[in-house]
C-alpha cells in the first residue's frame, strides 16, 4: 500500500481545489453569458414586427428566423431555451413581436395559439 507524504497530499489537494474553482468560475461565466443572451435586443424599440413561422418549422429554424429579424440575441440560446422550457410546441402563423421582448416572453408568445394568425 502506498503512503503519500504530507507534501504530496497537500499538492494533490491544491490541484483538486484549483480544478474545482476553475469549473465553478467557468460555470458562472457560462450562466452570465446565457442570461445576457436572453435579454431583450433593444429596450427602446417598441415597433411591432410581424414574423411568420411556417408549419413544421423546427426550433432551430424558428431561432434562425428570429435572429434574422433581430428579435433574439442568439439563435442557439433561443433554441436551447425553447428545448428546456417549452410546455408545448411553437405554433405556426404570423406573430407580432417586439424587440423589447425577452427570449422567455417571445417563447411564451410563440406557444399561444390565439396570438398566431394562421394562413
Provide a short characterization of the protein structure.
The chain has 119 residues and is mainly alpha-helical. The chain is 51% helix and 10% strand.
Characterize the structure shown.
By secondary structure, the chain is mainly α. The protein has a domain at 48-115: Endolytic murein transglycosylase (Dna Ligase, domain 1, 2-Layer Sandwich). It has four helices and two strands. A two-stranded antiparallel ribbon has the order 1-2. Helix 2 packs across helix 3 (75-85). The chain is elongated, with a radius of gyration of 22 Å.
Secondary-structure blueprint of this entry?
Blueprint: H1 6-37, E1 48-53, H2 59-68, H3 75-85, E2 93-98, H4 103-110
Antiparallel strand pairs: 1-2
Helix pairs in contact: 2-3
Question: What distinguishing features does this structure have?
Answer:
119 residues; mainly alpha; Dna Ligase, domain 1; two-stranded antiparallel ribbon; 2 strands
Amino acid at each position: 500500500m502506498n503512503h503519500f507524504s504530507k507534501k504530496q497530499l497537500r499538492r494533490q489537494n491544491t490541484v483538486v481545489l484549483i480544478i474545482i474553482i476553475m469549473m465553478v468560475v467557468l460555470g458562472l461565466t457560462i450562466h452570465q453569458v446565457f442570461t445576457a443572451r436572453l435579454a431583450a435586443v433593444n429596450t427602446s424599440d417598441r415597433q411591432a414586427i410581424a414574423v411568420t413561422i411556417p408549419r413544421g418549422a423546427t426550433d432551430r429554424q424558428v431561432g434562425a428566423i428570429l435572429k434574422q429579424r433581430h428579435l433574439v440575441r442568439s439563435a442557439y440560446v433561443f433554441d436551447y431555451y425553447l428545448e428546456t422550457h417549452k410546455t408545448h410546441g411553437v405554433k405556426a402563423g404570423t406573430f407580432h413581436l417586439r424587440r423589447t421582448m425577452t427570449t422567455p416572453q417571445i417563447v411564451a408568445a410563440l406557444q399561444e395559439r390565439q396570438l398566431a394568425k394562421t394562413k
